[in-house]
Structure formats: structure tokens, C-alpha cells
Amino acid sequence: MSLLHVILFVLSVSLTLAHPERSRRQVNECGPPIEPDEIHDAAIRASEFLLSEKSDITHGWPHTPAAIVGQQLFNPMWYNDNDMSAQLSVKQLDVELLEELSHRRSFVALNRIDFTRADFGGGQLAYYVLALQATCQDPRDYHRHDLIALLENMMLNDEFTNYFAYSLALLAQCHAGVDIDEKYITRLTDTLPDLNLQYPGDFDTLALSLIALKCVRPDSEEMKTVIVDGIGDLIEYERNRPDTSSSSVESSAIALQLLVLLEEELGIVEEEIPWCKWNLFRYLLSEQRDDGSYHGNAMSTSQILTVLARKTLMDVGGMTCYRSTEEESGGVRPDPSAPEISFELSIYDAVASEENPVVISNYVLTVQNGTTMFQVLQMLQEAGTGFSFEYSESAWGPYITSLMGVATASNTYWSLQQYPNIETNIGIGLLKPGAGEHYVLKHVTFENVFE
What we know:
single chain; 451 residues; alpha+beta; 5-stranded mixed sheet; 3-stranded antiparallel sheet; 16 helices; globular; disordered N terminus
């Protein structure tokens, strides 16, 4: 058992002994897991709300970097060579950031730093850097600005109004791969014991700080201890609160990012954390408005979209953006001026049971009108989403031989169907999804098809 698991176990036992009735109530009230489709549907609606809130003139949002980070983490294919609307949004990000840099009059060129004023806060800059990283741009050479060096100088000069913003800066530097000076990390770790979790801002700050520390020192045993101590504070606070709804949805979303990170990065299972993840998810789902938003606010919706996509700000560092050439795209590329369309794609394995197929994946995708399904699959594979497929060329075009690790056999194949089970009779090289359509790639036997 690792040091991390031992400390979590001790924390759990200690809290149970200290609050036996509350602890028993908390465990009993933790409901069953939520179906992935329910969370995914909430993420789709949040994404669609954000797209509807985008300015028709500038193609930006009230907080453009947060919206771009949320959209890109939810759908890594959102920013691609074929989507003119997404490209215009990223151009608006450039316009906003360059304007802020010019107002600041702080030019961090490749070999020169000139500070004259501080109109642009460190937290704002950190979010812009995260958006650049999410869209695969280099913040170290951004129109002759080294934004990572600028962030470090802002940290040196204490140009941060709070440690939430400071943690964003650490994350941005971590994703840039720089060697972060220990004094900047110590400044954050020394602050954590002084946070008052009765204030929502401090609750958010502690959760995000732990995510940032996991990024900057992933293998440090000392840092693991700091993270576990912080987790203990969050658990104790959760146990002593009357109910989950006393926190804001934004606080719950940041806390959930931490839990998602712990599960995926540290291998901690739900039973070892006496803090009900599913109740927090239920709270987020219950607070979502009919239009898909949270508070009708694009900023809040952007932040919550990240965790609805089961992602964290740590995932920004591993983004792979889609770039293509005509040769790589499987034929003639769609007209860049064509309107964008959104559609759904599901992947089922129905070999064992046609009536109750295994759901492997669900995606909501935005591409240029005229994109073929084969091009869509290539874009997904190149986007670093964990999606994979293999194919062979046939007289009828590309033929899928393996999808998400599931290979065809002598009596099975991957069928392209319109949801729920209508055969398209068109290959992936020819079919072009339309707006609002739902397609299924289903692994079936030949018997299933002809029954």
C-alpha cells in the first residue's frame, strides 16, 4: 500500500471516529454511480450553450480563453483546419491577448523584458496561456513575446491578487515544461494551511492548488504528503457541511476535477475517498438550466464543462490539435468556407447482443459541412482523444478492420448505421454527416444484419 493510500486510510478512520453519526449518514446518502450518458448529455448541452453565446461579430466570448479551454477539453476536434468558426474564435483570442499586452506595455521579447505597468493581472494572463496551450500554440514564442517568462516575472513581482490565479500560473508553466523554481512552489504550499474553507474562494483555491502541485511535482513524496493533507482538509470540510448545495457549482466543479485527477493519475478508487463524487455530479446536473448553461453565464458554464467532460486543467498539457493536408485527409478537403455542423457518433459492440450492445464511446463532433466519416475518424485519431482505428483499402473504399481495439473476425464487421439501427449502405469514405444527425459504428455479425 502506498504512502498516499495509507494516509487516506488514516484520514478516513480518524474522521469516522470523530464524527461517527455524520460519517455513517454521509456514506449511506452516497447514491449509485451516474450513467456516463447522463453526464455526457449534460456536457453536450453546456457546449451547445457556449457555442450559442459566441459573438456573431468577434467570434469570442465574455471570457474567451475559458470558453476555448472548455470547448477544446470537451471536444479536442473543435479547433481544426476545417472549422473556420473555431479558427476565428482562436484569432479573437489573439486579438484580445495582444491588445492586453500592448496596454500593459510589458514586452517580453525573446531576449528582452520591459515592465512599465501592470494593467493585465497574472490570473488573466495564465488563462490566456492555458488557452494557447489547449490550441497547440507556443506561449514561449508568441508574436515575439515569451509569455512563460512574463508569468515568472509576475510571480517574482507578486502580481497576483489571490492564490487561485497563482495556481493557474503554475499550471501554465508546468504545461510549458519549464523548470519551476522551488521558491514559487514553496510560496503556495506555505499558504495552504492558512486557507479558510468557510469561504468558497478558499475552497476553490485549495482544490486548484492541489491540482497545480500534482502537475509541478508529480513524483515527489513530499508533495504527495502536502496533497494528501489538503485532501484531508477538503474531506473534513465536506463531512461537516450540512449539504453539498451550500457550495457553488463552480466550487463543486473544481473539487470534482481534483477527484477525477486522483482516480486517473494516482489510481485511487472511490471507496478510499469518503467524499461522494456522484453526489457532486448530481448537484451539477441538477443546477444546469434548460438551455444547458449554469447561471446563464458563459464563464461558469465553461469551467463546469471541463469536469462534465471528465477532464481537468491538467489535461491541457497533453492536448494534440488536428492538422491535416489534403493527402492525409482521405480525399478532397471540405470547403473551408462551408458552415460548421454538429452531429453525434456512437460506437457499439453488438456481437454478443444486438438488443443490448456494449456502448464503447459517444462523441459529439463539430466539423465543416462536407467532411466524410473517414475524415472524421482520422481527425479523432489524430486529436489524441484515445480514439483509434485501423482500416484497409477495398474496392468500396476504406474498410474498418479494428476500432477502439476491437478487431473484426471472419464473421463480423463494423457497420455504419444511422441511429438507432438503420443501415446506411454507404461506406465511411463516402458518407458525409449532416447537422443534428446521429450515426453508430456497430460491431456486428453477418447473422445480426440479415436476421
